[in-house]
Each structure stands twice: as structure tokens, then as C-alpha cells.
Amino acid sequence: MNLYQIAKPLLFQLDAECVHDITLKGLKLSEKIGLLHFSKPPACQPREVMGLSFPSPVGLAAGLDKNGAVIDGMAALGFGFIEVGTITPRPQSGNPKPRLFRIKEAEGIINRFGFNNLGVDQLVKNVEAAKFRGILGINIGKNFDTPNEKAVNDYLICMEKVYAYASYITVNISSPNTKNLRDLQEKETLSSLLATLKQAQKKLTEQHGKYVPLALKIAPDLTETQVSEIAELLMQHQIDAVIATNTTLARTMVKGLPYAEEAGGLSGAPVRNLSTVVIQQLSKHLQGALPIIGVGGIACGADAVEKIAAGASLVQVYSGLIYKGPALIHDVCETLG
Q1: Catalytic annotation on 313?
Q2: Is the Cβ–Cβ distance between 279 and 292 less than 8 Å?
Q3: CA geometry: angle at 96 spanning 94 and 102, to 5°?
Q4: Helices and strands, number each (H, E), in the chain
Q5: Half-sphere exposure of 307 toward its Cβ, with a 13 Å CA cutoff?
Q6: Number of structural domains, the chain?
Q7: What is the domain-level CATH number for residue 75?
Q8: Which of the following is catalytic: 56, 167, 174, 175?
Q9: Domain of 51?
């Protein structure tokens, strides 16, 4: 039994968001005083995806380190790449607490954070201060009070400010915790958004002398027709990757369990199958035109293998870390080989 498994029963007695904050502060302090050391990712074949060289296919999903405040601490755990955010142009406190709930019996998590973050300018300062020089994804969103008709402006502001620092940029239009955000996945709205962001990417490439790939993060609660339409738009607008998936609004897989009816997005083991189905559908429609990053319910190496078999090129973990601890990273790497 590793150290995390020993500490886990005590941690699970505390409020979930409190533990989240304590963990981040502990990681940051441990790295700062030298208790953590940069480690190479566990033995795993590197991957070439989006024109980038990933030392390992196992990454940290966005949402855990929203402000990019613990990048070096996360890097020391052995991730092949790290994604921070979701970040918005202006700081915002997010939804009222409590807003994070463990569905322990199902190894699930429900959150309704609502893009709580310190704003893009603070994220940039944190990234500048980090020593990490590996693959860094920066996940961008819109402020809660920005109407959807003007959402593109928020994405452009964030994109322009993080472009110089990101290995790739993820456009988050699929969180269920910002009112009407998922409406941006509708065909005509999404096409317009992607066209504008692609134009901005071209301009920023010339300005900075480097090409930063764009990824789109989508929801698991889509019909196959919607997935097909999104795949078509991704190819049409030459988007560099798609991340499948965000959290789900479905509750059938946790029905009757404590906290199951709390509002918010459900992640962890209960979303695994939904995510894998969307990956399979994307793979069928994309036919290799762009890579898929698989995320949702990875709690062991076999779960990651399932995502890769469904069509993903890389995988990300988040909720699995809460239940399995950092050993999950090594397990997934060793299983993928």
C-alpha cells in the first residue's frame, strides 16, 4: 500500500474542495522546499501528436490546476504533459459552495465549480514563474456573464494572452457549469467560433514565429449526429485536435447513491463508457484527420488501453487521481508501454 492509500481514508473525511485546496498547496510547498524532484515519466513510448513530441501519452486533464499555480509540482508526479485552466479573461469566483462532491461508491465526482479562477493575467504570471519546460496545454473559456453572442471575444482575449506560453490551447465549450456554454457546440455557432479562432491562430503564428495547435473539448452528452457534425467542422476548419470528453449531466449510472442528484458535471468511473463511445464515434467520422485526446473515467491502465483502442492518441486523468493517487500515472504508462 502506497502513502496516498494510507492517507486517503483521512482525506475522505474532509470536505472535498478543502482537500483539493490542501493538496495543491501541499504539492506547491513540497516542490518549493525540494521534497519533490523532477522525474522522467515512467517507461512509456513517446508520441508525436499535433506536431508535438509527448514524452508519454499520459497527461493531466484541465480542472485540477485551474490557475497554473502548481505546474512544477504536477510535473514531478511523472505526467507526460500538463493541461491547466479553464481560465477566463477576468477573475471570477465561480458557483457558491459546496460545489464538489465525491460519489465514493462509484468512484465518481460531481463538480459545479463554474470556471472559478484568478483570470488569464494571473495564469500567465504563474506560467512564467514555473520551471517546467515540457508540454503545457492551456484551457480557455468565457466569463459567466459574457453572453454567448460575444463569447468569441473572451476566447480571443485568452488565446492572445497565453499563445506565447502554451504548447497547445484547448477551447472549452463543454462545461455544464457555465449557463448556456454548451450551446456553443451547436453547428452554426461552433462553425463561426472555430473560423474566427483559426484566423486568430494564423495571425498569432506570424506574430510569435511559432505554431500553437488548437484543440476543442467536447461533452459526452451528444447524439451521434451532433458528434458527426462536430467532426465535420473540426476537419473543415483544420482544428488540430479534439478532447473527448468533459463531464456528464447523466445520472443513471449513480442513481440512488449519496450526492448523486447534486447539480453539476459527473466525472470519474461513471463517465468512462460515455466518453469511450464518443471517442469511437469521433474516430469513425474523422478517419485519422486529426488526433483525439481521451479523457473520462480512467482509473487504471486497462481503462487507458480502452481509450486508445477506441481511437485516442493520448489520454488524460483527473478524477482517477483522487481515488487512486499518483500511482495511477505509472500504472497507465506501464500498461500502455
Answers
A1: no
A2: yes
A3: 95
A4: 11, 13
A5: 33
A6: 1
A7: 3.20.20.70
A8: 175
A9: 3-336
